[in-house]
Amino acid sequence: MESEIGHNTSFFRFEDLRVYHKSLEYVNWVHQVTRSFPASDSVSLATKFLNASAAIALNIAEGSSRGRSQFVVHLKQSKTAIRECVVFTSLAKMAGYFDDDQEEESREHLQEMTKMVGALIGSLQRGNGKKNGNHRDTDEETE
Fold first, then answer.
1. Which of 4, 20, 119, 137 is least surrounded, with the fewest CB atoms within 10 Å of its CB?
2. CA dist., res. 92 & res. 83, Å (int)
3. Residue 25 predicted with pLDDT over 80
4. What's the pLDDT tens digit per position in 12-23?
5. How far apart are CA 132 and CA 142, in angstroms?
6. pTM given for the model
7. Contact (Cβ atoms closer than 8 angstroms) between residue 29 and residue 35
8. Over the stretch 79-120, which tens digit does the pLDDT of each residue have?
9. Buried b (16+ CB within 10 A) or exposed e, 3-42
10. How far is Cα 141 from Cα 54, in angstroms, rounded to an integer?
11. Tell me: the pLDDT tens digits for 43-76?
12. Residue 13 has what pLDDT?
């Protein structure tokens, strides 16, 4: 959307965030890959996986309309949804619904979003006057 002053801006602030667009790409990816899950599992694992992936984007969108501290809370909820997707990725692999490449692709998406959300949290907290050393919110788990 072109603003009156001549630069591109979005009416909804969250639409300017790269992590929001990455989360939408992941929701789309999950939607595509879970279509191949067996019908017997489509109501349980596929639906829960899709809901968790959507929660990443939804929390970013909802939090962006709040103050900094509430945005941080919603971003942390996005990180919780990311971790849920890690579990669903593992379950899909164990059930034979994901091959090695799909598991790796899911994990790469999730790791990238974790870093991006963590960086956004850090940026918001520094904006609140917190120093880097006072609060640490990272997911540096290695496989």
1. 4
2. 14
3. yes
4. 889 999 999 999
5. 22
6. 0.81
7. no
8. 999 999 999 999 999 999 999 999 999 999 999 999 999 999
9. eeeeeeeeeeebeebebbebbbebbeebeebbeebeeebe
10. 23
11. 689 999 999 999 999 999 999 988 899 999 999 9
12. 86
Asked whether 106 and 98 are in contact (CB, 8 A), the reply is yes
- In sequence order, which ranges of 1-143 are alpha helices (DSSP H)? 18-34, 39-41, 47-64, 68-94, 100-127
The amino acid that residue 38 corresponds to is P
How distant, in Å, are the alpha carbons of 7, 12, 94, 109, 141 from that of 114? 30, 22, 23, 9, 11
Report the alpha-carbon distance of residue 141 to residue 26 in Å, rounded.
20
Enter the tokens of residue 78: 């996005």
Cα–Cα separations (whole angstroms), residue 46 to 24, 68, 85: 17, 33, 11
Q: Quick one: DSSP state of residue 8?
A: B
Instruction: With a cut of 80, say whether residue 8 has pLDDT above it.
Output: no
Tell me how far apart the alpha carbons of residues 17 and 28 are, in angstroms, rounded to a whole number: 17
Closest CA to 76 of 140, 138, 142, 14: 138
2, two tokens: 């072109």
